[in-house]
Write a structure and sequence with these properties.
The strands form 2 sheets. The chain has a 5-stranded parallel β-sheet with strand order 2-3-1-4-8, with helices on both faces. It has a 3-stranded antiparallel β-sheet with strand order 6-5-7. By secondary structure, it is of the alpha/beta class. Helix content is about 45%, strand content about 15%. The chain has helices spanning about 15-30, 35-45, 50-60, 65-75, 95-105, 125-130, 175-185, 190-195, 210-220, and strands at about 5-10, 30-35, 85-90, 115-120, 135, 145, 165, 200-205. β5 (about 135) and β6 form a beta hairpin. Bound molecules: adenosine monophosphate. Adenosine monophosphate binds next to α2 and α3.
């Protein structure tokens, strides 16, 4: 049994939350719940809500909290996640953390609370390089990076053999600058917030993907 199994990943855009979250979840046999992926799925639906969500994402702004809280609560309480989960990208503001805290106090959560907040630390000059090189298999969604995580065979997805790749609509230089500003203003205050609760642990997010995973393994002790 791992030391921690209800884990929040915190860190600026491009810090590797999605990559490390997926590795950690697979190794621990639990699911990664990605707030951004849930919202992108909503944005793909041909509905008024979908279009509204897409406009927030494409401008790099945070969607209103009630919307993401609803989606995350459903995922946290899903029976298949009762043994734990990795939350990537939620909470993303003190307001959301306080809503989560209230939910955890309620009967539905049955005393099960977030037990670790892992802050993936990377210097600013990493971020742009990491984000701008990012591509995603259009078929199965696996993420790659031109320099740091290329496909084994050029132009072919390692996982599903797909040959079409896409960039995230919000992975442009302009949007990254806005996402970083919002990270500093809205999300970074979560660092002292969770430090005060004794839940925050920092991990160095620089270097090869495997090296970062090993550092995380030492902390989570799975
Ligand atoms: P990500 O995939 O984590 O980089 O998130 C992509 C985008 O989804 C963000 O830039 C926001 O527009 C939106 N988003 C993701 N998580 C949240 C959240 N917890 N609260 C509000 N908006 C979010």
């Amino acid at each position: 049994m791992a030391l921690h199994n209800r884990i929040v990943l915190l860190g600026p855009p491009g810090s590797g939350k999605g990559t490390q979250g997926a590795i950690l979840a697979e190794r621990m046999g639990i699911q990664e719940i990605s707030a951004g992926e849930l919202l992108r799925a909503e944005a793909r639906t041909d509905s008024d809500l979908g279009r509204e969500v897409a406009s927030y994402i494409n401008e790099g702004r945070l969607v209103p909290s009630e919307l993401i809280v609803h989606l995350m609560k459903q995922a946290f309480l899903a029976p298949e996640n009762s043994n734990g989960f990795i939350s990537d990208g939620f909470p993303r503001s003190v307001e959301q953390a306080e809503i989560l805290h209230e939910m955890e106090e309620g009967p539905e959560f049955n005393g099960k609370k977030i037990d670790l907040v892992l802050l993936i630390d990377v210097p600013d000059d990493y971020i742009l390089q990491r984000i701008l090189g990012r591509t995603q298999c259009a078929t199965c969604g696996t993420f790659y990076h031109d320099t740091f995580k290329p496909t084994k065979v050029a132009g072919v997805c390692d996982v599903c053999g797909g040959k079409e790749f896409a960039k995230r609509a919000d992975d442009t230089e302009e949007t990254v600058v806005s996402r970083l500003r919002i990270y500093r203003e809205a999300t970074a205050p979560l660092i002292p917030y969770y430090e005060n609760k004794g839940l925050l642990v920092r991990v160095d997010g620089t270097g090869p993907i495997d090296a970062v995973s090993e550092r995380i393994k030492e902390i989570v002790k799975y």
